[in-house]
Write a structure and sequence with these properties.
globular; signal; YceI family protein; Lipid/polyisoprenoid-bd_YceI; TTHA0802/YceI-like_sf
């Protein structure tokens, strides 16, 4: 598998890129999950999606992928988001064919490689999870925050069986029977042990940006 070209490797799809100058998350240790209170909304798995984007070093050869949300719940207390979680189906990873422009590259081959033990090992780790630990009002959005950000969400992100806590601005919208959460954050994949090369000096690892962008678009409805 490691004979794939460096450009093909740049599709490392589960997390975002440094070329857009987004601030990379510095995760902390796993925190206590927030208790659900008030009204509980079921995540709509047909309209919810997680996007990943990654690059070569310097922003070259970008690749972007989508992942399905297989289950989840969000809870509201007094009309405000206070807790929730969702599960990501890692086996659903799909590379956007339009992101693979080189004539000698194949997006289906890249999908298979990303799902293999070289990267996400989806047979061993078929799901990833996010669980809210805290929600606060956002005082001021950073320049790289998702449009309309109004909350800061902290939560435990589990990838490859490892759980770390991340924090990011989010656009949370609440209506009569629906709630939506949109967010984006940049993380360092190696914090979760996602590496391809044997060490940092290995060209297979060195040429791939460690920063990966995660885009979250989760919608939930009242049963």
């Amino acid at each position: 598998m490691k004979k794939l070209s460096i450009i093909a490797l740049a599709g490392i799809g589960l997390l975002l890129a440094s070329c857009n100058k987004n601030s990379t998350q510095t995760p902390s240790q796993e925190q206590q999950v927030a208790e659900k209170q008030g009204d509980v909304f079921d995540v709509d798995t047909t309209s919810s999606v997680v996007n990943w984007k990654a690059f070569h070093k310097g922003g070259f050869a970008p690749r972007w992928e989508t992942l399905s949300v297989s289950s989840g719940e969000l809870s509201l207390a007094e009309g405000q988001l206070n807790a929730g979680e969702f599960v990501i189906d890692m086996k659903s990873l799909k590379v956007d064919p339009s992101s693979v422009t080189e004539k000698d590259k194949n997006y289906a081959e890249l999908e298979g490689h990303l799902k293999s033990a070289d990267f996400f090992d989806v047979e061993k780790n078929p799901t990833a999870e996010f669980k809210v630990t805290k929600v606060e009002d956002l005082a001021a959005a950073t320049t790289d925050a998702v449009e309309g950000a109004n909350k800061t969400i902290n939560g435990n992100l589990t990838l490859q069986g490892k759980t770390l806590n991340v924090s990011f601005p989010a656009n949370v919208q609440v209506a009569d029977k629906t709630v939506s959460v949109k967010a984006k954050l940049t993380v360092n994949r190696t914090d979760w042990g996602i590496k391809f090369g044997t060490n940092g000096a290995d060209p297979a690892e060195w040429m791939i940006s460690k920063d990966i962008e995660i885009g979250v678009d989760v919608k939930a409805t009242k049963p």
